[in-house]
Amino acid sequence: MVEVQLDTQCLSEGRLEHVLRSGRFAVTAELNPPDSADPQEVYEAALVLSEVCDAINATDGAGANCHMSSVAMCALLTRAGYAPVFQVSCRDRNRIAIQGDVLGAAAMGVCNVLCLTGDDVSVGDQPQAKRVFDFDSIQLLRTIKIMRDRGMFLSGRKITDPPQLFIGAVSNPFVPPYDWRAQRLAKKIEAGADFIQSQYCFDVPRFRQFMRQVCDLGLHKKVFYLVGVGPLRSDKTAEFMRTRVPGIHIPDEIVERLHKTPPQKKREEGKRICVEIIQQVREIEGVAGVHVMAYRQEELVAEIIEEAGLLPRPRRIGGPEPDSDRDRVRRSKSK
Amino acid sequence: MSIGKWLQNHPRLLERAYQFSHWFFKRLNPLISRFGYQRTDRLMRTGEEWSKKIIFDCRMCGQCILHSTGMTCPMTCPKNLRNGPCGGVRANGCCEVIPEMKCIWVEAYERSLDMPVFGPDIIHIQPPVNRQLEGSSAWINMLTEVDKSVPRGWGNG
Question: Which CATH class is domain A3-328?
C-alpha cells in the first residue's frame, strides 16, 4: 500500500488533505444518511466506503428531504474512526446555528467541511417549510475561513481553540450561466475554498471546456478539484434525474446508450459509463480526484473505484487501522 | 413588457441614473444630516419602496447593491443569494424554485456586461446581509454608511 507523507502545509489533520497535498489522485464518496435512529445503518454503509475512498461525505438534507443530520452522522463516523466530510447547507440554519455546528463538528474530530447553498425546500418532501438562506455559500465559506484562520466568530468574538478544517465548496459547470462558472469558482476560492467537489459530470466535453477556463485563470493551482461522478441505474433514472433533480445535466447520448441496453444489463452499463467518465476526467489538467455519488447504489461504489484503477487507496503513516482523523487530532494536541 | 423590465434591460441607463442619484444624495447630505437621518428615512421609505418595487421588484433589504449585481436585485432570488447563482439553474436559464422565472443571476451577468462603470463589480464578494436594516431606506443607509458596516470578524477577510 502506498503511504502518504505528512505535508507541513496542511491546514487540517485529515486524510483527504494529506492525500491531495501529496499529489495523489483522491477519491471521496457520498454516504446517504438513513431515515433511522439506528447508528448501525451508518456504520454498515461507511464500512464499505471507507476501504475505497479517502473521505466520506455526510450529506445535509440532500434534495431538501429530511434524514439523519449531517453533524450527527459525522459524530458517528469519527467515533468509529472514519474520515467524514461535513456537508453544511445554507437552507436550514442561520449563521448562529452554522458556526456552532462547525465548531462542534471540529471538536468531534471532523477535518473536512463542504459548504453548499442547498437545494430549495420546494423540491423536497416538506415544501411547506421556511427557507432560511441567511448565508449564501460564499459567505459561509468565508465565515468558516475566518473561524479557522483568525480564530474568531463572525462577530469578532475570540475562539480559544480554532477549528482546523479543510474547507470545501461545490461547483456546477453544467448549468447556465456557463461562461461565468469559472468566475464563480474563482470567487469561491477567494472566499476560502481549499477543495471543490463538483456536481455529477456526465458531459465530459463541456467539463473539459470548463477546466480549460479554470486553468487559464490559474485556478487549478489554487484549489483541488474533485469531479462528481456516479452510476445511472437505467435510462428511466437518467430521465428522472435530469428532469426532476435540480442542477443535473445528462446528455442525450448517455440516455440513448442506456435505452439501447437490454433491461438486465442496464445497471452494468450505467456502471461502465461511470468508470469511463472517471478515466476520461482523470486525464484532464486540473483534476485532483473524483467524488462518487451513488444514491441508493452504494454497493457499486467499491466496484467503480476498483474498475477505474483507483485502488489501493493510500494510507497515512503510523495510524491505527483504519486510521482515525480523531486520533490524529488527539495525538497532535497532546504533543 | 413592463416599464420596469424595459429599464432593467437597459442597465447602462440605470447605471447613469444611479450615478446621478448617488451624486444628488451626497450633495444633499448636509441638509439631510441637519434634518435628521431617521426623520428623512421615515419620509423617504414609502417613495423609495414604491419606485424601486416597480423597476427592480425591490425587497427593501436596506443595503442596496444593485450597481454591483448588474442592476438586478439579488433579494429577488428565492434563495436570496448575493454572490452568484446556485447550482440548480435550469438548462434554459430559468430558476430552480420558480421554473417560469429566468434565474436572476443569469440576467445579472448579462446586464453587468453592458455596465461600463460598475459592471466589473459583480465579481466582488458581498458580505452577509444585515437583517436589522430590512425595511429601511437604502439611500439613507448609504449616507450614514451603516450599509457598509460588516460584522467585526468579517473585516477584510
Answer: alpha beta
